Q: What sequence folds into this?
């Protein structure tokens, strides 16, 4: 009995898996439709942000003008009045550019405004933008201008590369783990619950082949699911979306400094760390199934393990923990985009080692598993 092809066919042709693939494709279409609907909201959101900053700047300017009227000899108040007035003027210009196609001028105006706000904050005044926010916004604007790349909305972009990134973000941030648990949730524990495992035990094959076939068929189904999601996002974005570039810059924080990576680099790294984490999830599932032999108990303990591991290792402050943390990629986006005291790939070896250990333990555990009466 060739167990791996049998197991793969059984899982692939199940109604649950086929319906899940259909649901994922429909979800991608709905996500793109949402982006289309919210295109008008992008301009509204930009206008609201500008109006909020303008209101603050006007209040600041009036306050400093009053201070100058009260004391014409107050040079500090006069200087603050000039700077705050400059911020107001730049915000008026920025308001005029909202919704226009001249994105280069808008970015240049934004950076000029940010420079004036920095100058204002250096005078000891507050403004509802932090130094970090300003530095990151200026760096991204400069990069876009240098590369001649039109800025895209983080959430509602119709550009093909940016839309594919949105899909990947949703997939790697818990989405893939939930999807995989839906796919494999009964593949081993269900065998114990309905006692079909007894039939496998009576076949002329080694018990370890059961774990091997379950593990690798799950891996293959994960790869297939990932391929369907990427293909669906690329197809929908190419047919219905707008042009863009996979060289679009994403801001990365590296030990407090600002750096950039392209959308292509980000998706490659995200899918790599997701894939090794899915291997860990599958290995954990198989081992817990052999211990608990009940689907709900297995899934509950598995999710609790992932959550506890992510929280426990995340609370450890020292830099070297990233090398030994096998749970850091449960939420991989921050691991890639915020690399303070760590590098994005540091935990991969720890994940692979733990996966191998759990896999071997599962092979040993099933050897001692007996037929239920």
A:
């Amino acid at each position: 009995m060739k167990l791996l092809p049998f197991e793969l066919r059984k899982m692939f042709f199940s109604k649950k898996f086929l319906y899940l693939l259909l649901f994922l494709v429909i979800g991608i279409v709905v996500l793109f439709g949402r982006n289309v609907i919210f295109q008008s909201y992008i301009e509204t959101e930009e206008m609201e942000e500008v109006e909020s900053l303008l209101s603050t700047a006007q209040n600041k300017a009036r306050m400093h003008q009053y201070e100058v009227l009260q004391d014409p000899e107050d040079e500090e108040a006069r200087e603050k009045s000039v700077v705050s007035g400059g911020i107001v003027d730049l915000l008026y210009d920025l308001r005029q550019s909202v919704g226009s196609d001249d994105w280069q001028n808008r970015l240049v105006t934004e950076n000029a405004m940010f420079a004036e706000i920095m100058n204002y904050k250096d005078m000891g005044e507050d403004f509802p933008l932090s130094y970090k926010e300003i530095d990151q916004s200026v760096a991204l604007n400069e990069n876009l201008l240098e590369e001649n790349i039109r800025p895209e909305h983080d959430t509602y972009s119709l550009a093909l590369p940016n839309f594919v990134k949105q899909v990947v973000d949703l997939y790697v941030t818990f989405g893939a783990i939930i999807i995989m648990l839906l796919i494999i949730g009964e593949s081993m524990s269900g065998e114990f619950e309905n006692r079909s495992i007894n039939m496998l035990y009576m076949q002329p094959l080694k018990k370890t082949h059961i774990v091997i076939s379950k593990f690798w068929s799950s891996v293959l189904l994960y790869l297939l699911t990932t391929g369907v999601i990427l293909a669906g996002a690329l197809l929908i974005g190419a047919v219905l979306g707008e042009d863009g570039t996979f060289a679009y810059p994403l801001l990365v924080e590296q030990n407090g400094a600002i750096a950039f990576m392209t959308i292509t680099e980000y998706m490659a790294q995200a899918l790599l760390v997701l894939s090794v984490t899915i291997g860990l999830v599958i290995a954990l599932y198989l081992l817990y199934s052999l211990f608990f032999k009940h689907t709900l108990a297995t899934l509950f303990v598995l999710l609790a393990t992932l959550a506890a591991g992510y929280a426990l290792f995340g609370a450890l402050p020292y830099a070297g923990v990233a090398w030994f943390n096998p749970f850091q990629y449960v939420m991989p986006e921050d691991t890639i985009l915020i690399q303070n005291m760590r590098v994005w790939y540091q935990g991969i070896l720890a994940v692979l080692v733990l996966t191998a250990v759990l896999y071997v333990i599962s092979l040993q555990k099933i050897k001692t598993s007996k037929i239920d009466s």
